[in-house]
Amino acid sequence: MPGIQITLNGKKVTADSEETILEVARKEHVFIPTLCHDERLEPFGSCRVCLVKVNGAKSLVPSCTTKVTEGMEIHTDDPDVIEARKMSLSLLISDHFGDCVAPCSLECPAHIDIQGYIALIGAGKFSEAVKLIKEKNPMPLTIGRICPHPCERVCRRNKVDEPIAINNLKRFAADYDSMQENHWAPEIAPSNGKRIAVIGSGPAGLSCSYYLAVKGYDVTVFERNPRPGGMLRYGIPEYRLPSEILDREIGYIEELGVTIQCGEGLGRDFTIADLKNSGYHAVFLGIGAQKSINLKIEGEEHSHVIGGIEFLYAHATARPMDIKGKTVIVTGGGNTAMDAARTALRLGASTVTVLYRRTRNEMPANEAEIWEAEEEGILFEYLAAPIRIEDAGDMIDVECIRMELGPPDSSGRRRPVPIAGSNHRRKAHLLITAIGQRTDAFDIGVPELISARDNIQANLDTGITTDHYIYTGGDCVTGAATAIEAIAAGRKAAVSIDLYLTTGVQREIDTEEFSMTKGPLKSIPETLFEMYPKEKRASMPALGAEKRIQGFQEIELGLSEAEALREASRCLECGCIERFSCALKDHCTLYGIDQYEIKGEKNLYPEHNSVLDDHPAILRDENKCIKCGICVRICEEVWGLNVFGYHNRGFKTEIAPYFHLELRDTACDFCGQCADSCPTGALALNSILRKPGPFECEKVEGNCIHCSLVCALEYNIYDNMILKTTSAPLMGENEGNLCVRGRFGFGYLRHGERCVQPMFLFDGDKKPVELFKAVSRAADIIDASKKLCILTSTQLSNEEYRKLSELKCAVDAAELYHVSYDMAEAVDSSYPVVGKRKAFEDILRFIAPPSLSEISESEAIVLFNIFPGRSYPILEMNIRNAAKRGAQLFIINQKPTRLDEYAESIFRVRPPYSSNLLTFASSKGKPHPGSHFSEAHEFFTARQVSSSIFSDIHIKPGKITHLIEQIMKARTVSFIADEDMCTTEELEAFIMMTLSLNNRAKLLLMQRGVNPLGAQKILREVPKKEVIGRELFEDYDSLLLYKLPDLFTHYTIPFIHFGFAPVSGSAYHGVFIPSSSLLETGGTVYKYNGKEVSIRTILNSEHGLENVATLTQLIGQIAHVR
Amino acid sequence: MNLMVCTGTGCVSNGAFQIIDALKKELIRHNLEREIQIITTGCNGFCANGPIVVVQPDDIFYQMLTVKDIPFLVEEHFLKGRPVKNLMYTPGGDQTPVPKMHDIGFFKKQRLIALANRGIINPEEIDEYIARDGYTALRKVLADMTPDTIIDEIKRSGLRGRGGGGFPTGIKWEVCKKAHGDEKYIICNADEGDPGAFMDRSIVESDPHSVLEGMIIGARAIGAKNGFIYIRNEYPLALRRINRALEQARDYGLIGENIFGTDFCFDVKVNRGAGAFVCGEETALIRSLEGKHPQPRVKPPFPAISGYDGKPTNINNVETWANIPRIINHGADWFSSIGTESSKGTKVFSLVGKVNNTGLVEVPMGITLREIIFDIGGGIKDNKAFKAVQTGGPSGGCIPEDLLDMPVDYESLTKAGCIMGSGGMIVMDEDTCMVEVARYFLSFTQDESCGKCTFCRIGTKRMLEILERITQGNGEEGDIELLETLAKNIIQGSLCALGKTAPNPVLTTIKYFRHEYEAHIREKTCPAKQCKSLITYKIREDKCIGCGLCRKNCPTQAISGEKKQVHAIDQNLCIKCGVCYDSCRFDAIEVQ
Asked: What is the ipTM of this complex?
């Protein structure tokens, strides 16, 4: 009933009265959020986020279940609607327990995807890890050495034993990658012709340069000092960050096209106006905070008093002070103080004492730094500070005062309070002051940008200043801070610069992405971590104290690969695996939900305190379940199983497998529909990687290549890996449904799982050879053979068959066998490619195969010798849907199928009774006279089968009569058989039954492999007498039962095997040539219904593998040339 | 002379069957067994005063009988003809007993339609029902009426659904009759779940055939061949009586194949519910009948279009069905002459709480709350002040004193923020904390939420947590507003009526008793002195005589004091159980 008029947000819209508000809105591109809705399922209406206002309705209505009516006025953006949606989301979040993003990543100033790179390291993909790190931090070699790693402080592993050695892992990956011949480098966008001046080559400037260069900018860095690196070079001693490492990392940035001009200081050698005049489109100021803060005490200007930064700078510029055998005092408690003290020690000072006005607990320096300094023999004196300096000839007198800790100050640390009368003096040759740094920006010519605290003023999130020509970030904005903060600031400014220069729009602060957290570390009960066994943190190999104080050699030596892999495996994977595809999270971001707005008890399952590991392919986290019931319903309504159910009621409602079984112990079919359609991370598809990531995948629409249904699906690609396959509801003929093979059957394409090595196979041995040799051997086999066996995977395109067909012409007798990739070790389920139907080609032309939708709309369905649940689950789903809609289902099968419960009647028959049964049925048919059916019918009725045969197999004649009557009566009938399971006789009888019983019947003969019809249409049939093994077995049918190993045992037939893994067996003689997958080369195939479709290329063939067509051509050429 | 002994659940649990035994024994002893007949009847409604025996035809009402009273009663009244005054009802504060049942205030103002046979017939004997015009309506329907004229009659009567929603019954039937479908179903919803309400149970117990007859008439009108009675398993007596009624009706050919020899066939199955409140919601009830997880589903489609097994289904509650035969017998005009403009007929209420007369009352629509509480209910117990009355069960609202003269009908109650519901009516006196009341009712609905939709599952839980906080003295500024926002959205956004009405007690108590909430939150006091966390028990020095009773009774030894000296309570040990308060004979314990 089309054509009713409604009003949607004030706009007149024509709709169909059968449509729901949600469907109409989606068609009109009006966004309505939903969580419990899935197009494949009956509307449910439980999540209540799709509420809309309908004029005249007593309350808000759920748009997913409400059908439109004539004149309906709908508002999807009314304030009441927004309020209700927010409330619904806030309520759901108030009962949600999980970390969207791992705390480490949230804590990291640069928000590096730490969980992601640890997962990649865990998977042995070290360069890929570097790639992920460099999305946020272009200097992992450097930061991996010097970062104070706040991430590790919040690591949830602290609750188990010790935090993950995150920074050491980062360093490991970076070190590994930089050792490779081709270290990872980003792709550079084509030059956009815009020039950017970056002032200062510290971490902020380098980071900004990197991200701008990647975007195609022409970046010039101006560095006041003789060498680039800023504080990384002049503030950090070499024993922590060797200059060779720094040089290498800066070199990587220069490789991107960034020019670094050293010895050019802003305000000294040029001005901002000069930059403008020379055509720079924007300037980034990353000048740092490079002046030590004064102690503001008497005598400070004495020549034996020096700032920590200045001291380190002097050393780094090879102008070290001569302090051999001298007494040095360092005041301050930060990393600069440690660096200065330890440098002084290495320069030969006899004693180095650190004075700190608070206690060790309050010291801001890294614990490791303090500990190492102590180990090296540096003395620490706490609760003491200098108050006056007097000249004492060669030395100075430092007058100090003792402190005690008072109440906490604004930093949360207890404030030191001087103890009156505790003054005392100590002598020293040098006092190094390292109590903080400040920006020195007075001479760069931007006085209007300088704040009262001498810093440059800018927006911390965007790096934008009041002058839209000038961007800034790093220490010069924040005061002395960490390098990773400067790197984050540089990247943010680069994004702002890019946005402004490409669009003219000044960047606003990003809408904050909603990220649920389980809460601060200390608020999470220990019990949630009891399940994890304690494992020691990887310790960093380091030089011993005696050795290290002798020079500036790098102390930390880096983790070994084995240690890194083990350390990565300790990661608890706190961040949600559905982080990048969670509808709840997206909606919460959209509506600005605050996790703490509505608080209350959470319905937690402490016994399931983490992701449940009760299924190999599906991860469950009940604490993230929003009770939308999609899993319960999709399993029941779409897949016909009832794996999930509701337990308890009300607030305590729980969705779990029936009887609370472990998921693996249920009837689960591994279709993964529940996990794919789950709107949150409560159910997720397990990653193919050991650690799940998660990773932000590119979704590429493509087709499944496991059977001839070629279902539509989305490949989730990350870094040329299929991490998972998902589907959008209703996509393709399969309507978004996938079976276990479509969902999980791509692991064999993974690096390491698949054999990419050509081999000779003989007498059970495998000998790796070069591809050329393998191809030559194949050519030899062809030249020498009268008989030949070709083994391939079940995934061949028409193009490949065409080439194989040529190859088959080259020998007298060649047979093609499919070997499933997973059957490589046990080839007993191999099938001759060209099926038995070749004999019936002429008849088959007259019967169209049904489409899947025609099957589900059939009035009657006859299944013969097919186990659709096992072989073609999506087909099974359509048959079941038909039966549920009222189709009469007849099953003629040797063994029970899962569809039996839906069947009108079931016939358990084996050959030859089966073909007798079918022939008998055929003979009762009354085909339309004069049609091609009748001719065939006559042929068959000639073979009279007596009904007495049924007493042999205990079938009541009435049952078969009923079958015949019902089929003849039905307006639409689908006959479906598995060709690979039928004997020729059975096949013939089944085809005839189709022909004679119902003129409107359609016939579907399924066969293994993605493209059996391609083989059928393209490969020439081998004359039957020449079929290998013919003389061994009585007929072609027996060949079906024929085990491939037997074939090789009885005949020393050589074979050529194209595939993903070589067959193995003692009697084999042949050659294995690894080939690419259809997903790597693409190609056309014929679907089950005879339609030709293109299979899209999804992956790059990274191993240089060629497809079978190319390989065959190559073999053919060599063979032919001889 | 007939002795009508009430055998409703209330009286039975108070020993009605023992009274019958004793009566029999005494009557035999005095050779009166032939002259005086004992008749067991269904519930009288005056349950708190059971066991009850009414002596007919004199209408003498005896109450609170014990086995001990029986020899004296038989001898005095039946032998000597002197009715026994001290076994009669005496109104609160009055000294004179009221001998006749229909002179008692509780019965005087009632108007019985649905309960017309209560206390009069033996519910286990179909003949007694038939003797009181039972099944004449069915005969009339089958002989003289078409489905359309039946529906027309019901429509004209103005009968509205008594289960809570108040949807016009005739229209509901009409929709179901017109719905496409070869099979249709009738359901009687006897899943009465409101705490403290027992209207439906009582009807089934006292007059099961009226419900059956109503259903058969409904089936005839709609064209249904099968029906279900969905009844809670916690109602064993009702279950027994409905099953017995079904058996007898089937024996008489009143149910089953070819009813009254016509071609009309209809049968009923009894389905026992496991006692989930949400199963009172029709779509959840239907799912439960289908053997599925009882979650309500979104309407439309209404059950009248797609109900049990996807077939058109008409579902009404017990009281609605019981009204049907009377309407057919007496006519729509008679029925619609009772009640108000929009609410016709009578309504049965379960009057409980702090009133003198508690029990089941059937009153004409439009009667005021004051009449129900003060005339029928006999006023507030112990001469305390009235504070509020809750109508509509846990999903209803609390009505304050200044609205007591409001007529009881669907519209007025809704206007006051309440609902008619299925007829729960709980009277509260001055000692009731309204925040605690709201918390109590919400804790019920929250616990009974099915858990399907977000607002009801989590929203009511959050409201409950806030109320718990407030009653524990941990309320915060903004809590009232947050409760109101949550309530508004839960009402707007919940899937079924359970969620949509659950906030009513909270909203009405905030509306009419906001100051009590504010006192809890701001001053951390409970004005009614009920919330344990907010009160302290103290001993008044001027009144304590040091008897030591409170000290003895205190379960935590929080009270100390020498004999004949003023005692004191150690507040650190006191658990505020109130035992001292109750045990003190000198009013020396005060609550602050």
From this structure: 0.92
